[in-house]
């Protein structure tokens, strides 16, 4: 047996590289080299060379390390070594005989040339003139050694070594102390910093391509039409590959996407589902969900129908007892226009599923055009399923005359006398009330536990018989609350109002005894239902008896009742809300909040008389409620009546600031100037608050008595130097007197005394801008932002200053900083959208703003204006109404809405909005507040101010 190993177990040849033929390169690892070891030393190399020369019978060559001492001036630097001298990499190479012979020949030549050079040097020393003669004849025959030394010296002078260049600095390092060495700074990570900077610079942000938007629009569409090569209109562009890009469709898709997103954002956070992502599947009836439709080009293709047909055939073959499969197959043929095959499939399905109501109903529906066949199918269906109410109803609908319908229903009642649905059908078919009454009497005997039949019979009976019917119903259904409510409504209908409350009290006791009481929320819903049907007394009785059911005294019942009233008001059930508040006031007689809520209800949805009645009861119950006294005084019919109310209020609340100011406003509105001024003087003595002084100054300004107003504000500032409104009034008085330097000083002093007053900073900035010193206005706003950081009004004013100075670039820079500091400000977003964005970018920016800002009326108004500009009038009106619902106290919103209605609304709608604005009495808003606080508009009402605001708003 051979001891030779197999091919795969043999050692690889020397210098073998795997895969070299296919372009692989070899490499070695530590395992290939083995443990590290040092190579042969220089002495070992010399010994080896000498031994080899001895074997050859020659002297050791000096080129391979023979002992020959080099002269000191022959120290060549490594840079001047002969490149052909075999050192370094080839020093330890393996030499053969040819190499040795060549080396020996070169060595002999070098030695011979060296001897000739030395011999010539001796003659030059003996005969010095010979050197000059030879040099004259041959200038290149100078000494080789001198020439090489000169070249070396010149090269070292021109290219000094690094150690020579820094020799002086290295010598100076000897004087550096240890402390200086310790204080040397650390080297920063400049490489990582530069790398991160470059990565940040390489980042790019791209907008979503139009093709993506168009694809999202068409993703759910199924279109099989073949389009022509040409463009359908002039809104396309040919691409390089022959396709067509319709820019009009892309723009429409973008607008549609933005509109949907705006609608989703406007719905608030109450919805959790995402539009377009919900999937509702009926696992039982999905096969029967095919609707009847006409086949058309673009809706389906023959191939699609064939694929669905094959699928449904597999379904009915796999499970022939499954009726929905047969129905789906028949509907598919109906869609394809093959009615004969559809009826044939239903016939087969009836044979396979004779007890299925659905398949019989489907067969009846498809055979309605042939009424005789439909009746035959109905008769067969009833024969096989005699207890199916739906089949009896279908059979009744096939009859044309009422008598036949009655005959079918009565046959059904003979088979199923306990079916409530059939009794209702029979009653509805009767033309006379007497016959219907007889049928209902029979029905209640057959089905005494049906509340609907009892209630229907009670409605048809006379009041006396209705009471008897309801008494029988209560005995049959002691746990049914609807019977009790119907009995109470019957008493209200008869005009016996006292028995309504008594019946509801008995109802609550009886239901509680039977453990059949509803929850209080369900009782409120029943009361709202009674109000909707006109039973107001029954509604009130239900609320009185059940409002506090299930609530303990530890619960915050007052707040719960107020929330219930608000919920009913939101549904438009004002009588229910009145009953809730009245019941709450019986428990919490001294609740100011509840009385105020009741008065608000009457003011918004009642009459002035009803509001006055509520307020009179309120001030009797809570005489210390100043607000209720003031509201009652405003409702007084004449001046004397109002004075009497205020006198009573003052007796209950002596030295009250609010009552003083209301009395002053009353006298001023009736042009009793002297009386008002006298009351103001008394108020400053008895209740000398800063608000009284402010009203005094405002009163004199309205009367155009600026000198007296300036004197009053000066006195007030000595008492209240921290009141910002006084400083504002002082500056405005100086502006009215055209004393701008004094006004500037007043504002400057005021901002130092009240640095947190935003209106004071704004007045100071606008004064500088009005004078023409825009730089000073910027400086004022910069100081204001330092004193009041993260304030949207100050940032908005800074942007407007730059915009009014036609410096849009700086305005955009400031707006970017402002949105970083105040990202949820609707005022800033509105300013950016409407004044710093082009028209085409306003809607996308509006969507971005709505995502970041939660329910801001100013932003809603801006979105409405965007839709208004696009002639989307219904959307604009809805956004205006949303803004009003968010904050009815914002007067600018009412102004924009009325301006919109002036152009695109009706006179009735405009009048309705103006009336609601008058009831709301808005007090805030940039333009509204400026108009309302103007001294010349002090005596104007809400409607007059609204008209001025509409004229002042920007287009």
Automatic annotation (TrEMBL):
Biased composition of type Basic and acidic residues is found at 144-159
Q: Does the keyword Lyase apply?
A: no
Parts forming coiled coils? none
| GO annotation terms (biological process) | spliceosomal tri-snRNP complex assembly
Which InterPro entries did the record assign? HAT, PRP1_N, Syf1-like, TPR-like_helical_dom_sf, TPR_rpt
Highest rank taxon of the organism: Eukaryota
Q: Where is this region: Disordered?
A: 19-94, 137-163, 218-242
Q: What is its main location?
A: nucleus
Subunit structure as annotated in this protein's UniProt entry:
Associated with the spliceosome.
The molecule here is called: PRP1 splicing factor N-terminal domain-containing protein
